[in-house]
C-alpha cells in the first residue's frame, strides 16, 4: 500500500472543489430556468455534466444544494467592500454605497437566487431567514453603525439609525429592484441607478441633516 503524499492530497482537494463548483454552476442554471419546484436532481446532474451518483456524493438532496447556492450568494455580497469609514463625508458615502449595492443586487442574472428564495421562504423559512440575515441585515447594520457615528459627531440628527438605514436602503431600490426581481424590466443601467441613488441621498439628507445650533 502506497501512502498518500501531500501533493496527491492537494490534487484530490482541488478536484473535489472543482467538481463541487461544476455541480453548483449546473444547479444554478437549472434553478434559474425551472425554479425550485421544477428542478430535479436528474435535471441538475444532466446540467452539471455529472452522474446522479456523483451528485449525491456532494449533496443529499436539492434542498441542500439550493442552500449551498444561497450561501454562495451571501458570500458574494460579503466580498463587496462598502466604505463605511466614520471619517468619510456622509453624502459621498451614501452615494457610493447606494450605487454599489444596487449594482450588485440588480446585476444581470443576480435576481435568480432572490426570486427562488422568495418563492420557497414560506416552505423553507430557515433558508429565507438565513438569506435575510447574511445578505440584507448585515448590510443594513453596517450602514446603521456608520450613521450612528455621524449622529455622535452632530452631522446627522437621527433617533433610530436602524430605521434610517433601512429607509435609505429601500429608497435606493425604488423603481429599480422590484421591476427587476419580478422580471418586469431588465437590469437597470449605471446611469439610471445613479439617478435614483442621487434622489435617495437628497431626500435622506433633507430629513436627517443636523440643523445648525
CATH superfamily grouping of the largest domain: Tetracycline Repressor, domain 2
Helix-strand pattern: HHHHHHHHHH
Principal-axis shape equals elongated
Number of domains: 2
What is the CA-CA span between the terminal residues? 82 Å
Question: Percentage of helical residues?
Answer: over 70%
Structural class call reads mainly alpha
Which consecutive residue ranges, at least 5 long each, have pLDDT under 50?
A: 8-12
From the 3D structure, determine the CATH topology of the largest domain. Tetracycline Repressor, domain 2
Assembly state: single chain
Mean pLDDT: 88
Keywords: DNA-binding, Transcription, Transcription regulation
Protein name: Transcriptional regulator, TetR family
GO molecular function, one term: transcription cis-regulatory region binding
Domain HTH tetR-type: 17-77
Concise description?
By secondary structure, this protein is an all-alpha fold. 74% of the residues lie in helices and 0% in strands. Keywords: DNA-binding, Transcription, Transcription regulation.
Write the layout of secondary structure elements.
Layout: H1 6-38, H2 41-48, H3 52-58, H4 62-79, H5 90-105, H6 111-120, H7 125-152, H8 161-173, H9 177-181, H10 190-208
Helix pairs in contact: 1-2, 1-4, 1-6, 4-7, 5-8, 5-10, 7-8, 8-10
Describe the structure.
The termini are far apart. With 213 residues, the chain is mainly alpha-helical. 74% of the residues lie in helices and 0% in strands. The chain has helices at residues 6-38, 41-48, 52-58, 62-79, 90-105, 111-120, 125-152, 161-173, 177-181, 190-208. It folds into 2 domains: 6-59, Arc Repressor Mutant, subunit A (Orthogonal Bundle); 69-208, Tetracycline Repressor, domain 2 (Orthogonal Bundle), CATH 1.10.357. The model is unreliable at 8-12 (pLDDT under 50). InterPro entries: DNA-bd_HTH_TetR-type_CS, Homeodomain-like_sf, HTH-type_TetR-like_transc_reg, HTH_TetR, Tet_transcr_reg_TetR-rel_C_sf, TetR_C_Proteobacteria. This is Transcriptional regulator, TetR family.
Amino acid at each position: 500500500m502506497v501512502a498518500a503524499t501531500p501533493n496527491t492530497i492537494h490534487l484530490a482537494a482541488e478536484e473535489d472543489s472543482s467538481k463541487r463548483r461544476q455541480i453548483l454552476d449546473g444547479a444554478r442554471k437549472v434553478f434559474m430556468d425551472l425554479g425550485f419546484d421544477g428542478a430535479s436532481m436528474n435535471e441538475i446532474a444532466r446540467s452539471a455534466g455529472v452522474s446522479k451518483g456523483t451528485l449525491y456524493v456532494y449533496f443529499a438532496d436539492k434542498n441542500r444544494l439550493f442552500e449551498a447556492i444561497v450561501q454562495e450568494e451571501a458570500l458574494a455580497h460579503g466580498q463587496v467592500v462598502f466604505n463605511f469609514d466614520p471619517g468619510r463625508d456622509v453624502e459621498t458615502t451614501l452615494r457610493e454605497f447606494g450605487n454599489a449595492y444596487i449594482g450588485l443586487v440588480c446585476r444581470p442574472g443576480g435576481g435568480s437566487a432572490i426570486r427562488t428564495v422568495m418563492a420557497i421562504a414560506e416552505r423553507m423559512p430557515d433558508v429565507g431567514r438565513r438569506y435575510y440575515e447574511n445578505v440584507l441585515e448585515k448590510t443594513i447594520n453596517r450602514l446603521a453603525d456608520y450613521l450612528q457615528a455621524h449622529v455622535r459627531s452632530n452631522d446627522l440628527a437621527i433617533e433610530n439609525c436602524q430605521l434610517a438605514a433601512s429607509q435609505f436602503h429601500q429608497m435606493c431600490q425604488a423603481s429599480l429592484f422590484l421591476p427587476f426581481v419580478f422580471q418586469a424590466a431588465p437590469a437597470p443601467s449605471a446611469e439610471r441607478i445613479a439617478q435614483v441613488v442621487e434622489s435617495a441621498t437628497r431626500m435622506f439628507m433633507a430629513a436627517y441633516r443636523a440643523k445648525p445650533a
